[in-house]
Amino acid sequence: MVSAGDFKNGLTIEIEGNIFQILEFQHVKPGKGAAFVRTKLKNIISGGVVEKTFRPTEKFENAHIERKEMQYLYQDGDLYNFMDVETYDQIALNADVVGDALKFVKENENVKICSHKGNVFSVEPPLFVELAITETEPGFKGDTAQGATKPAIVETGATVMVPLFVETGDVLKIDTRTGEYLSRV
Description:
The protein is an all-beta fold. The protein folds into three domains: 1-60, SH3 type barrels (Roll); 64-122, CATH 2.40.50.140; 127-182, CATH 2.40.50.140. The protein has one helix at 95-98, and strands at 2-3, 12-15, 18-28, 36-43, 49-54, 59-62, 66-76, 79-84, 90-94, 110-116, 119-124, 128-136, 149-154, 159-163, 171-175, 180-184. The longest helix is centred in the middle third of the chain and has 4 residues, at 95-98. Belongs to the elongation factor P family.
């Protein structure tokens, strides 16, 4: 149990059966009346953000989020198959649970599976991945004054904006959080 007076950024709590992560919190002590804690909470399962206020003495259940390293094996229709790298157990997750998380992840790469009390709610890809370009238009020298980009399709099928000098066959380092090109490898 954790009281509202002990909130910290990043803490996960359970409120009315939902799991929330604290994005921001602020202790407010008005000149008149009782103190309260103003928070910005993110619903971990739906992704929605809400603002709530609590009395500092209110207590909430601490929600333990389990992150397990698993290997992404293959996609079979709407099911994505993963294998535990320690026990070799396999699980299949629906496309609605996975979402866009595997946009930049190739088969046989490791990801983190997030669950609460055995219920899987999201997949976290590695922060950076290296992917080869399968298709992009040629860039022409002298087209721009500064920093122009063009679309390129990588081996997972995702589209990334890249500088003009990048060509088909190049291997890129991509940030999976933003989908941005970082560098050539």
